[in-house]
Design brief:
By secondary structure, the chain is of the alpha/beta class. It has 10 helices and 13 strands. Bound molecules: uridine 5'-triphosphate.
Length: about 280
Amino acid sequence: MISKCLFPAAGYGTRFLPATKAMPKEMLPILTKPLIQYGVEEAYEAGCNVMAIITGRGKRAITDHFDISYELEHQIKGSAKESLLTDIRKLINSCTFTYTRQNEMKGLGDAIYKGKALVGDNEPFAVILADDLCINPNGIGVLRQMIELYNKYRCSIVAIMEVDKKEVHKYGVIAGREIEDGVFLVDDMVEKPESDKAPSNLAIIGRYILTPDIFKLIESTPAGKNGELQITDALLTQAKEGMVLGYKFEGKRFDCGSVDGFVEATNYFYQNETNR
Ligand code: UTP
């Protein structure tokens, strides 16, 4: 039912300078796999086969990554190294990758709006921020959990997790009533609140299911926190006019947009990678 996944990847990744001076943040690897490939694998596992990527200047490595490299493949053909490309080849063969550019960094809401040209405005779609790496070692992936919930409620859904009150200023934060275990009917949402003004400690992380009416709502949303067009503001309107759910997902999330989270993910994958 949900076949398209949007990957806003136009950010500058300034926290990783100088590594991100000429290389997209989304191509930073956890062990040997770039962050964006983890995201695409999660979307594919959830049933998506159209990967719509919002890029910016200097992001060509992403386009090249999801394409065949004839010289390289010829070079390693028949060697043991060939198997290292099995996973990426499967994605390339099974999915369609589409791209558009966000010319100016005007916020996540604007990046998602640019995706309208790729995902259309007549069906729900998923959004993954690849710098939030999510895994669920003992069960189904986070996006798949959200799509299953969508099939029940048919409305926009944001993935949420409890964070320390001291950390809420880094996130969009929701408030709402728990209507079933881990599922909240959102009635308030604030982008990056100060800790004493946060409506709760339930923080939005980089996984969304959005219904297509979000595009019209983004059009009428003014710039918000930090002068950027915030998806949180458009979602709050959607929550007030209709219904938005917050979903406490099962699994682990690493904030790979920060150096600490990136190192934590690297250590975790190094220790838990089975074939190492
Ligand atoms: P971040 O807040 O992590 O910003 O964006 P950033 O620029 O990528 O990283 P820093 O803070 O400079 O280190 C969250 C996600 O939203 C995307 C980013 O690519 C990232 O995946 N994004 C944000 C856009 O695509 N466009 C925007 O205008 C803003």
